[in-house]
Amino acid sequence: MTSSAITASGLRKAYKDKIVLDGIDLDVAAGTIFSLLGPNGAGKTTTVNVLTTLTKADGGTAHVAGHDVAAETKAVRAAIGVTGQFAAVDDLLTGRENLQLMANLKGLKSAEGKRVVDDLLQRFDLTESAQKMSATYSGGMRRKLDLAMTLIGKPQIIFLDEPTTGLDPRSRRTMWDIIRQLVADGVTIFLTTQYLEEADRLADRIAVLDQGKLVAQGTPAELKRQIPGSHVRLRFDSDAEFDSALRVLAGASRDGEEDLVLRVPSDGGAKSVRAVLAQLDAHYIEVEEFSVHTPDLDDVFLALTGRTSTKVDAK
């Protein structure tokens, strides 16, 4: 059974009369990517701040790497790394110097520190620019350097708070590859993001936070199946097969985009798809091809929060 890297029960936080976290529960399995989604102002950053010991909760409990975030602050901080949407890089230092400074702060001996720095520069494809001032780095390079600095302490859990905000598509994909490799190495990732595609591509599980409350949790596929609109799309190679299927399949309708294509309501699961195909077989109707279409995370987000984007409200 997979152990939990992060757990929270009934977390509450308010600033004066504004409730930011209203009793949220979390369970993040070790060695996975967990993504917290929500409109700006929903409480994502506050959640990260509580779990990383930067902010004290008003109520509830939380454990990170097995340590109580309120009572074992030092132990929690020793087990985690945090990378935000603004890279914590010293512009007056080179890339190598930034990494070396972090190695010194972590108490690594000279030879070990140099080896770790060299390995990280190579791993993040920063070797050629290691001697350049980090002020000259692109946004993607700065973000990679920031994450590399975080890894010097070999954290068990890394909190990535909107790590690809403002990056171009190529830099975002590079960061995704790095994140996947970290998880392959056994690291747990707690990711907040305003990019729904990013959560869909990366996360093993997703939680949707809205107005301080968790309104849904599950795998990306599970969340999509909760939203109406899933269907099986069937293509036929003749009018006769098409007309027969239209008569036989309950709820079937013509797909307005193409000829000889039907849409059949379905939850997108294997059982319901097999049932549709079995019904066609029972009536000796041949289908040329089929595909399953489910709502994407944009649809899920809209249905759960009433918003079309994570960027609507001011933070």
Task: Report what the structure shows.
Strand 9 and strand 10 form a beta hairpin. The protein is elongated. The protein has helices at 44-51, 73-79, 95-105, 110-123, 139-151, 169-184, 196-202, 220-225, 239-248, 270-282, 297-305, and strands at 4-15, 18-29, 33-37, 59-64, 67-68, 80-83, 157-161, 188-192, 205-210, 213-218, 231-235, 253-254, 261-265, 289-293. It has two domains: 4-89 and 137-224, Rossmann fold; 229-294, Alpha-Beta Plaits, CATH 3.30.70. The chain is 36% helix and 25% strand. It has eleven helices and 14 strands. The strands form three sheets. It has a six-stranded mixed sheet, sandwiched between helices. Strands 2-1-4-5 form a four-stranded antiparallel sheet, covered by helices on one side. Helix 3 (95-105) packs parallel to helix 5. It has 315 residues and is of the alpha/beta class.
The quaternary state of the protein chains shown equals single chain
Rg, alpha carbons: 24 Å
CATH superfamily of the largest domain: P-loop containing nucleotide triphosphate hydrolases
Average pLDDT rating: 90
Instruction: Tell me the strand percentage band.
Output: 25-35%
Distance between the termini: 38 Å
CATH top level assignment of the largest domain: Alpha Beta
Q: Which descriptor suits the 3D outline? A: elongated
Q: Strand-and-helix sequence, N→C?
A: EEEHEEHEHHHEHEHEEHEHEEHEH
Tell me the structural class: alpha/beta
| Percentage of residues in helical conformation | 25-40%
Q: How does the major sheet shape up?
A: 6 strands, mixed
Order of strands across the widest beta sheet? Answer: 6-7-8-3-9-10
Whole-number count of domains: 2
- Could you name the CATH topology of the largest domain? Rossmann fold
| Spans of at least 5 consecutive residues with low confidence | none
Please tally the helical runs, counting DSSP H or I stretches of 4 or more residues. Answer: 11
CATH architecture annotation of the largest domain: 3-Layer(aba) Sandwich
